[in-house]
Amino acid sequence: MPQKQKSKSWMELKQSGNECFKTGQYGEATNLYSQAIKELEKSSKKNPEDLGILYSNRAASHLKDGNCGECVKDCNMSLELFPFNVKSLLRRASAYEALERYRLAYVDYKTALQIDCNIAAAHDGTNRMSKALTEADGLSWREKLPPIPTVPLSVREKLASQTTVIAPQSNPAPKQNGIRQTNKPAPSDKDIKKAQLLKEEGNALVKKGEYKKAIEKYSQSLKLNPTEVTTFTNRALCYLSVKQYRDAVRDCDEALVMDSNNIKALYRRAQAHKELKDIKACVDDLNTLLKVEPKNMAAMKMLQEVQKKK
């Protein structure tokens, strides 16, 4: 009489699912992750975090197969079991983006950046959503956003150490001038709020044309939260206005380390290079910008101007 085949453990099923995922067999991976979920749910050693990871893995398979609705459902389950799991946040953001639910995608990308400010895919996603929402709702689009959850510092510290591999669809950490991104310490919730208030004070001073005072406010803000890209690009604008071009370049460098496709940082660094008579660097920045945003009229106009000077 043939022996009854022993059923696989949830860990074996998960491993088989991972192998199928790596070879592009997403339907089979989904099936194996589903079996693993059932086995783990039956187990007496059920761990919410393990279960959350299985739902997140199945979400990745759904996303690859274009089943964005199912991906969102699995990410919701994953995040209930394993709150602020970066992979689930990024996968759900990608699914929301594909479903054109841009506000929800923006919130997930921004939440992921609170956990690890060096995730290139989240920076790129935030930029794409900002652009799409500006086109849809005009400059007041931020007023229509759902609230962005504040990730507690304890969670950020725990999860930041687990984000060396983010998600199958994320990009490797970009380099800017050969410098790879480094992990900056996560600011506390209190520091983030204080930094935001100082940044807003700086923005108000810029509107009045008080650039030197604005630089002071942005500098104070960056001491508290050195992970906010827009504070660097805003201070770079002020440095350009007071003709401190090398300082403007440095701030744009910092912004581009965190977000290699940041349009404002590329444009403002090109402006600074132009004033410093470094035409080659200026042209390089403008060409990079136009690869990201081919119809950027300001960049096209500046490129024509500097090429005449060559």
Please provide a written account of the structure.
This protein is mostly helical and 310 residues long. It has 3 domains: 73 residues, Alpha Horseshoe (Serine Threonine Protein Phosphatase 5, Tetratricopeptide repeat), CATH 1.25.40.10; 57 residues, no CATH class; 123 residues, Serine Threonine Protein Phosphatase 5, Tetratricopeptide repeat, CATH 1.25.40. It has 15 helices and 2 strands. A two-stranded antiparallel sheet has the order 1-2. A hairpin with a 2-residue loop joins strand 1 and strand 2. Helix 3 packs antiparallel against helix 4 and helix 12 runs antiparallel to helix 13. The protein is elongated. The termini are far apart. About 7% of the residues have low confidence.
What class, by secondary structure content? mainly alpha
Task: Give the C-level CATH assignment of the largest domain.
Answer: Mainly Alpha
CATH superfamily of the largest domain: Tetratricopeptide repeat domain
The largest β sheet comes out as:
2 strands, antiparallel
Any guess at the CATH architecture of the largest domain?
Alpha Horseshoe
Report how far the terminal alpha carbons are from each other.
86 Å
What fraction of residues sit in β-strands?
Answer: under 5%
Q: Strand order, biggest sheet?
A: 1-2
Which stretches are poorly predicted, pLDDT < 50 over at least 5 residues?
Answer: 163-183
Radius of gyration: 23 Å
Helix share of residues? 55-70%
How much is the average pLDDT? 85
The tally of domains stands at: 3
Molecular shape: elongated
Helix-strand string: HHHHHHHHEEHHHHHHH
Number of strand segments: 2
What name is given to the CATH topology of the largest domain? Serine Threonine Protein Phosphatase 5, Tetratricopeptide repeat
